[in-house]
Amino acid sequence: MMINKISRGCVLFSAAFLKVFLVALFSSEKKRIELPRRFEEAFARYVGTRHAIAVSSGTMALSLCLQALGGQEGDEILVPGYTVTEVIDVILLYKMRPVFIDVRIEDGTIDPVYLERMISARAKFVLMTHIHGCPCDIAAIETICKKHNLIIIEDSAQSCGAEYKGKKTGRFGRVGYFSFGIMKNINTLGGGMIVTDDAQLAWRIRDITGGFKRLARKELWLRLAKTMSLSFFTHPVVFSLLVYPLMYLLGEKRERIFEFLFKAPLLSAEKLDKLKTVFSAEQAALGLFQLRSLDVFNKAKMENAELLESCLADCLKVQCIKKRNGRKNIYLNFVVLAQDREKLINRLFLQGIDVSPGFVMACSDIERFKGFRLDCPNSLSWQEKNIYIPIYPFLSRTKIIKMADIIKKFYEEK
Fold this sequence. Notes:
By secondary structure, the protein is of the alpha/beta class. The protein has 16 helices and 18 strands. It is globular.
């Protein structure tokens, strides 16, 4: 069918979303002041921490964590080799030294075995990143950090709602942080949250942000317009009848256009300064609105992920993230490692399914970080083989089974 195409992602937008935004926009000043505090309190209850501080982005959240924890020039921070480039950019802006730790091939999370081997006398922090919504081996990492007196910063930017042994991610480190970007499972038109049980640390972060400026109303409207546009163009009908045919005509150039539109640029000190804005009442209202249904949203994605995993179970050329007892993966992204990746991506596209290579990189092997390059073969394998397969909540079982069938047939023919 002409309208049966599947986009690589979707941005959920509704009349209710717009209504929440507008109600907050035109609320009294008293209510506008209360909204960020209410969202912080609700989020702290959800995660299970004593304190939560809403900030302008996940990137700014990491910056504030390093600043409040007293990160100094030359301090080493142990980070996964497979991560987003902005994380390393922030670390370098503070003149700290990232030490890349290879990840486990089965799930892309930092490998505790390699972690302990790379600890030196200058090591001060470990960035515990729950990549793609999958929790790390938290107990093993905590044991190592306690032994070597290292501070855990918990990167939960991609794992809002994920759990480890019944507890939400974000609450295990000295401090944790989340991201509420447009493609996240909570979208506050940009934004983030820092969580901690340490009252003094929370006070220091609030003290730092006390001098931040208000987010310009024009910027908020631009972000809202971007959300509405992405929601429109990823709607099944619009994507099938307009976007997919254009992508088809572009051929191999289509991926370069996506990179141009969405690839994160080098984070400079000037760009970081622009993020020094206060979390707005409109953003807080959107956060409260979506937090109520977050577990339902995550559950729908998890069910789709489990269906796709079961359909691909007998396909040896594709590796799904390995399940482990005690870990609840919320599948912010459903990522597989696939042989002959580019050919598989092209086959799926010709069958009406737009999948993509991932945006997470083997930062341990990137040219601009060459001064800190370390051999992380598993991280490189994740970068070179990963494919993001759509599993957003409204995808039908029929479409998910169809994607799996196309993948299996592709490898059967080889």
